[in-house]
Amino acid sequence: MIYGNVGFLGIPLLSAAFPERGGLYIALFSIMDQLVLWTYGMYLTTPGEKKAAFSLKKFFNPALCAIVLAIVLILAGIGLPNVLETSLLTVGRA
After folding, report:
1. In angstroms, rounded to a whole number, what is the distance separating the alpha carbons of residues 16 and 80?
2. Residue 26 neighbours by CB under 8 Å, 6+ apart
3. How many angstroms from the chain centroid is the CA of residue 86?
4. pLDDT per residue as tens, the chain (94 positions)
């Protein structure tokens, strides 16, 4: 139940505290969040004797792929087109 609160509390807090590199910190945190969710979280939610083994195939999901892409774009200094960035910022501030 802790993972859903990251979007409501953690992301706005990091964005406000670190306006320049907040996006990078959010992406790095999200990688760890996804790692724990798809490994230990899966272990905790697997019924009794069928405990799930770690699998890289299960670890790769759309959220992790988007996070890795975001880190690459941030580190490479590649920005979004102005129209797309303005739209996403407007939705994000809502």
Report:
1. 20
2. 10, 11, 14, 15
3. 21
4. 455 666 677 778 878 888 888 888 887 877 787 777 777 777 777 777 766 566 677 667 777 788 788 888 888 998 889 999 899 888 877 7
Angle at 24 between CA 19 and CA 27, to 5 degrees: 125
pTM: 0.53
Residue type, 24: L
In SS3 terms, the chain reads as CCCCHHHHHHHHHHHHHCCCCHHHHHHHHHHHHHHHHHCHHHHHHCCHHHCCCCCHHHHCCHHHHHHHHHHHHHHHCCCCCHHHHHHHHHHHHC
